[in-house]
C-alpha cells in the first residue's frame, strides 16, 4: 500500500513537471462571438494541442487559460477544463460538484448533470475535436455553442473545474430578465426545440447528456416567459401553440429520469416539471404513483421506471401567509391561519393537520383546502400550475402550548415544519432567531418549525425585545459593509428601536396613510385624501410621495406630506390604523422595503383598504383577499363585485365598499376636439426605473412591433386628413412606465406625443379628449365614466401579455379593431359624426357603473369610519 501511494505521488510530480513546460503558446484562443464558419476554419487550421474559447467582452482572471491548461495536463484523463463562472454582475453562478474544493473532477457520462453548456471560458484538447470531426453548426442562429458542448461531452465526458479560477461573462444569464436580447427573438425559441433535438440525435436517439441539455434550454425559455415576464415574441397565437407543440415533441424524447433528477443547474421547482411532463401529451391528464414508507412518501409519474422521484416530503413546505390571533364564529380565541403548500402531489392524496399540544395532551385540527387563488403560474400567458392554499383555526386555551404541522398519506403520518412567508400579515419570521409576536398578553414565536405560545407580561415582552435586538445587532455585525441587506437591516433596527421609544407618543393617535405612485399624485389616493382631510375627526391623514413636483404641490395646498424612507414616515406607517393600498405590497410605497419587512411586521396592525388605480381587467393572484389580507376593497362597478367575491378572490360581501373611484369625482367632461391614444405598457419594452425614479429610455423601442403598429396608425394619411378637415388633434399618451419613449413618436401640428410624467396628467387629458383609443388600459373606465366613446385596438400582431377577466366582446364600451386599417376607418367615421357615443355602448356604460354622482370619496371615507370606529 505504501509503495502504491509513493507511485501515485511520483506520477503526480511528473505530471506537474510536464504541465509546467506548457505555456499560452500551446493554446489557440478562439473568439466565440465570431460566425460559425470562421470558427470552423480556425479549428481546421489549428496546430496547437489545446484550444480555448473566449469572448472579448468577458472578464478573465490572471493567467486564466494557462492555469486551466496546466490543470488539464496534470489530470491526465480529463479532456476539457473550465473555471468558476460569474454572471455579468460578478455573482457566482450555481454549478455542479463541490464548490468548496479547489479542483473538481466531473464525469458527464456517470452523471449527466455535470455537462458544461457554457462554452466560453473552456479549454479543450484539440485532438478530441479532430477525431470526432466536431464543427460549429452554421445554420443555427442560437444554441450552436450548446450543441458543440454536448457533442464534445459525448466524446470526452470527463472535465475538471478550477473553483479558484474565475471568469465573468458579458451575457445576462437570467433569461427571465427583460434585458436579455436573445429572449426577444423568435429564433431563440425554435432553434432550441425540434431543430436542435434532431441535430443532437445519434442513430435516432438522444444521450442522457443531450436530453439534459435540451431540458435545461427548454426551462430557460419557459422561465423567460413566466407570469408578467412574457416577451410576446410570437406574431400570432398559432405560432405560440406551434412552439409549445415542439416543446412537447422534445419532452417526449426526454426520459423521466432526466426530468426528475435533482440538480441546482436548472433552478426549476418540481411542480413546474410536472407541467413539462404534461406537454408530452397535453390532452391526457397525468397520473401518479405515491410510494410510501415510514420515512417518506415519494411521488412518481405512473408507469415510469425512473429511479428519481418527482418529489418527496422534503420538497414540501407549509408556508404561512396570514397569521391572526382572534375569535372564531363560536367565540373561541385562537390562531387563525392561512398557509400555502408548495408541492406536486394530487390534493386528494393527503391531508394537512395542525396539532396543538398543551398540558392536557394533543388535539389535531384538519386544514381545509381553499378555492382562493394562492398563486397561479403561467407560461406564455397560459395556466401551468397553481399553489394550493389552506385554512386552519387552532383554539388557544390560555396556558403554554405548541402547534406543529403534520401531513397524512393514508396510514402514514409525517411531521412538517411550519414556515412563514415574509409578508406583513403573518407577524412571525422563519430562520430569524429571537423574533416574536406579542399580542393579548401572549408571546408567540416559531422555533424549529413549531409555533410556541406562552402567557407573558409587559415585562416579559421587554425582555424578549431586548434579546431580539441583541440578535439583530449580531446579525448586522456579521453582514458585509455596504451591502443592500446590511443597509436595510441597519435602518429597520433603528426604526424598531424608535417604535418602542416613541410608543407612548403614538399609541393613541389615529393615522390613515394615502399614496398613489412613487413620484406622482393625482390618482384615487389624492382625491380620497382631499375629502377626508376636510373632515374634523381627529384623524391624521398623511400622503406618502417621493420628493417631486406633486409632493410640493400637495404640501403647498396644506396637506401633510410624508417622504418614504424617513424616520417620521416609517413611524407613522408602523402605527397606521388604515393604509389605502394602491399597489402590492402596501408597505413598499411607504418606504419599508421588502427586505426590511421581516424585522418589523410584528409591530403592524393596520386595516388595509384596497384602492387600486384602475379596474381589475387581468387575472392575478394579487387580487385575492389573502394576497395582502385586505380588510376591504373599494369598487365602482357590479363587475368588480362579482370578481372580488368569486371563489378565486374570496372577499366577503361585507368587505366590498361600493364607493366608486375617488378620482372620478373630478372627471367633468371638458372636450376640446381631441382623439386620445392611451395604450397600456409592455414589460419587454420597459428598461426599468433609474435612480431618479423615472423610467429609463429603451434604445430598442423603435424596432418593436408596438412602435411600428402605432406609428402606422398615427401617420395614416386618411386619418390625418379627416382630423384636419374636422378640426381634431391627435394626442398619443404612453403609459407612465414607457413615458421615456414619448420622444420616439414625432409631434407635428396634428399629432402630439406626450409624457404623462412631464407634460400633462391623465385626468386633465381625459377630460379634454372626445374619444379614446386604447388596447387594454384600465383608463378606459375613467373615459367611459364621462359617457364618451372608447375604441379598442386589439391587433393580433400585438397580443396582450396577461390573462384578462374583462369581456371586451360582451360588455366592452366600444368597437374592437383588429387591424390598423379597421381602426382608421372607425376613427374617421367617429370624427365625421362629432364623436357621439353610440346608444348600444351608452347602455353598457350605464349598466356597468354603480354611481354617477361624483361622491365616491365621501362614500369611501364613511365606509372606512364604519370599519374603524366599531
From TrEMBL:
InterPro entries: Glycerophosphate_synth (IPR007554), Nucleotide-diphossugar_trans (IPR029044), TagF_C (IPR043148), Teichoic_Acid_Biosynth (IPR051612). Coiled coil: none annotated. It comes from the Bacteria. GO terms for cellular component: membrane. Transmembrane segments: none annotated. GO terms for molecular function: CDP-glycerol glycerophosphotransferase activity. Pfam families: Glyphos_transf. PANTHER family: TEICHOIC ACID GLYCEROL-PHOSPHATE PRIMASE (PTHR37316), TEICHOIC ACID GLYCEROL-PHOSPHATE TRANSFERASE (PTHR37316:SF3). This is Uncharacterized protein.
Amino acid at each position: 500500500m505504501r509503495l502504491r501511494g509513493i507511485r501515485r505521488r511520483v506520477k503526480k510530480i511528473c505530471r506537474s513537471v510536464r504541465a509546467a513546460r506548457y505555456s499560452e503558446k500551446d493554446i489557440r484562443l478562439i473568439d466565440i462571438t465570431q460566425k460559425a464558419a470562421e470558427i470552423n476554419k480556425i479549428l481546421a487550421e489549428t496546430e496547437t494541442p489545446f484550444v480555448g474559447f473566449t469572448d472579448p467582452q468577458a472578464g478573465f482572471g490572471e493567467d486564466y487559460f494557462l492555469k486551466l491548461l496546466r490543470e488539464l495536463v496534470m489530470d491526465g484523463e480529463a479532456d476539457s477544463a473550465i473555471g468558476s463562472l460569474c454572471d455579468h454582475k460578478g455573482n457566482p453562478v450555481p454549478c455542479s460538484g463541490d464548490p468548496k474544493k479547489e479542483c473538481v473532477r466531473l464525469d458527464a457520462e456517470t452523471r449527466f448533470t455535470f455537462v458544461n453548456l457554457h462554452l466560453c471560458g473552456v479549454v479543450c484538447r484539440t485532438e478530441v475535436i479532430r477525431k470526432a470531426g466536431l464543427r460549429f453548426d452554421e445554420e443555427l442562429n442560437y444554441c450552436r455553442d450548446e450543441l458543440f458542448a454536448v457533442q464534445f461531452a459525448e466524446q470526452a465526458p470527463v472535465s475538471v473545474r478550477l473553483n479558484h479560477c474565475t471568469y465573468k461573462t458579458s451575457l445576462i444569464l437570467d433569461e427571465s430578465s427583460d434585458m436579455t436580447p436573445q429572449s426577444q427573438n423568435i429564433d431563440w425559441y425554435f432553434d432550441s426545440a425540434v431543430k436542435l433535438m434532431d441535430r443532437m440525435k445519434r442513430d435516432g436517439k438522444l444521450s442522457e447528456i443531450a436530453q439534459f441539455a435540451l431540458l435545461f434550454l427548454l426551462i430557460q425559455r419557459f422561465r423567460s416567459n413566466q407570469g408578467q415576464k412574457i416577451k410576446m415574441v410570437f406574431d400570432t397565437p398559432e405560432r405560440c401553440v406551434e412552439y409549445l407543440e415542439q416543446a412537447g415533441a422534445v419532452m417526449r424524447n426526454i426520459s423521466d429520469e432526466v426530468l426528475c433528477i435533482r440538480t441546482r443547474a436548472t433552478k426549476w421547482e418540481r411542480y413546474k416539471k410536472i407541467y413539462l411532463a404534461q406537454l408530452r401529451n397535453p390532452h391526457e391528464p397525468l397520473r401518479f404513483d405515491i410510494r410510501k414508507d415510514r420515512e417518506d412518501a415519494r411521488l412518481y409519474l405512473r408507469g415510469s421506471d425512473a429511479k428519481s422521484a418527482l418529489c418527496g416530503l422534503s420538497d414540501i413546505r407549509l408556508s404561512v401567509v396570514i397569521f391572526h390571533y382572534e375569535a372564531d364564529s363560536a367565540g373561541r380565541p385562537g390562531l387563525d391561519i392561512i398557509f400555502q403548500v408548495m408541492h406536486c402531489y394530487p390534493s386528494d392524496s393527503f391531508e394537512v393537520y395542525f396539532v396543538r399540544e398543551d398540558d392536557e395532551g394533543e388535539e389535531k385540527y384538519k386544514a381545509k383546502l381553499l378555492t382562493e387563488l394562492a398563486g397561479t403560474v403561467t407560461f406564455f400567458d397560459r395556466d401551468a400550475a397553481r399553489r394550493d392554499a389552506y385554512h386552519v383555526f387552532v383554539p388557544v386555551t390560555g396556558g403554554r402550548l405548541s402547534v406543529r404541522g403534520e401531513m397524512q398519506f393514508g396510514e402514514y403520518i409525517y411531521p412538517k415544519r411550519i414556515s412563514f412567508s415574509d409578508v406583513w400579515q403573518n407577524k412571525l419570521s422563519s430562520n430569524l432567531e429571537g423574533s416574536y409576536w406579542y399580542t393579548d398578553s401572549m408571546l408567540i414565536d416559531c422555533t424549529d418549525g413549531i409555533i410556541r405560545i406562552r402567557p407573558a407580561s409587559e415585562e416579559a415582552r421587554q425582555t424578549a425585545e431586548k434579546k431580539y435586538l441583541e440578535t439583530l445587532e449580531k446579525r448586522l455585525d456579521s453582514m458585509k459593509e455596504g451591502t443592500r441587506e446590511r443597509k436595510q437591516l441597519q435602518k429597520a433596527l433603528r426604526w424598531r428601536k424608535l417604535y418602542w421609544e416613541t410608543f407612548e407618543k403614538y399609541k393613541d393617535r389615529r393615522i390613515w396613510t394615502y399614496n398613489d405612485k412613487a413620484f406622482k399624485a393625482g390618482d384615487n389616493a389624492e382625491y380620497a385624501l382631499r375629502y377626508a382631510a376636510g373632515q374634523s375627526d381627529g384623524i391624521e391623514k398623511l400622503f406618502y410621495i417621493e420628493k417631486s413636483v406633486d409632493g410640493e404641490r400637495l404640501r403647498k395646498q396644506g396637506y401633510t406630506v410624508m417622504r418614504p424612507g424617513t424616520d417620521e414616515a416609517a413611524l407613522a406607517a408602523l402605527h397606521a390604523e388604515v393604509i389605502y393600498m394602491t399597489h402590492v405590497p402596501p408597505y413598499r410605497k411607504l418606504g419599508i422595503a421588502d427586505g426590511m419587512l421581516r424585522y418589523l411586521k410584528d409591530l403592524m396592525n393596520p386595516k388595509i383598504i384596497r384602492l387600486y388605480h384602475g379596474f381589475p381587467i387581468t387575472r392575478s393572484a394579487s387580487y385575492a383577499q389573502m394576497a395582502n389580507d385586505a380588510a376591504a376593497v373599494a369598487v365602482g362597478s357590479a363587475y368588480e363585485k362579482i370578481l372580488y367575491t368569486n371563489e378565486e378572490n374570496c372577499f366577503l360581501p361585507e368587505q366590498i365598499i361600493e364607493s366608486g373611484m375617488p378620482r372620478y369625482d373630478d372627471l367633468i367632461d371638458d372636450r376640446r376636439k381631441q382623439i386620445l391614444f392611451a395604450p397600456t405598457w409592455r414589460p419587454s419594452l420597459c428598461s426599468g426605473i433609474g435612480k431618479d425614479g423615472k423610467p429609463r429610455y429603451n434604445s430598442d423601442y423603435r424596432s418593436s412591433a408596438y412602435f411600428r403598429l402605432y406609428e402606422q396608425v398615427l401617420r395614416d394619411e386618411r386619418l390625418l386628413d379627416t382630423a384636419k378637415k374636422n378640426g381634431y388633434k391627435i394626442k398619443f399618451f404612453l403609459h407612465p412606465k414607457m413615458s421615456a419613449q414619448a420622444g420616439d413618436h414625432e409631434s407635428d401640428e396634428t399629432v402630439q406625443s406626450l409624457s404623462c410624467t412631464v407634460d400633462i396628467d391623465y385626468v386633465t387629458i381625459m377630460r379634454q379628449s372626445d374619444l379614446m383609443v386604447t388596447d387594454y388600459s384600465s383608463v378606459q373606465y375613467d373615459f367611459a365614466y364621462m359617457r364618451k366613446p372608447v375604441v379598442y385596438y386589439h391587433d393580433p400582431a400585438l397580443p396582450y401579455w396577461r390573462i384578462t377577466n374583462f369581456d371586451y366582446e360582451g360588455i366592452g364600451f366600444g368597437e374592437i379593431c383588429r387591424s390598423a386599417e379597421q381602426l382608421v376607418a372607425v376613427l374617421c367615421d367617429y370624427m365625421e359624426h362629432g364623436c357621439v357615443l353610440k346608444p348600444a355602448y351608452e347602455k353598457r356604460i350605464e349598466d356597468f357603473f354603480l354611481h354617477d354622482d361624483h361622491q365616491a370619496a365621501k362614500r369611501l371615507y364613511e365606509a372606512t369610519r364604519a370599519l374603524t370606529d366599531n
